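Course assignment 3, question 2. Fill in each field.
Student: A.L.
Task: Predict the tertiary structure for the chain below.
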Amino acid sequence: MAYFNPEHYIPTDAFLRSYERALMDLSDRDLAVWLMHRAGTGQCEIARRMETSQPTVQRILARITLYLRTRIHRDLHGEAPAHTFGLVMRRFGSGR
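Answer field:
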């Protein structure tokens, strides 16, 4: 699966509003991690600054990416992407 970057959408007004609302719904910690990541800060450096581990930063970024993908798609198209449920199960609970 290709890496999803929500900023690769054509930046329409609707997309930008949805992206902004989605970011504002993140916790302070998650928003800080996301903004450092988008600014080009590496996961190890983010972990050092946030006083956590690199695997934790990796999991946070995966969760935020899935959240943004789902939220923006739902806002723009009225429903979550069909494949989202499978991604959630694989990453957060199937045990496989």
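Instructor remarks: Residues 54-77 form the longest helix (24 residues). The chain has one domain: 12-92.
Grade: pending
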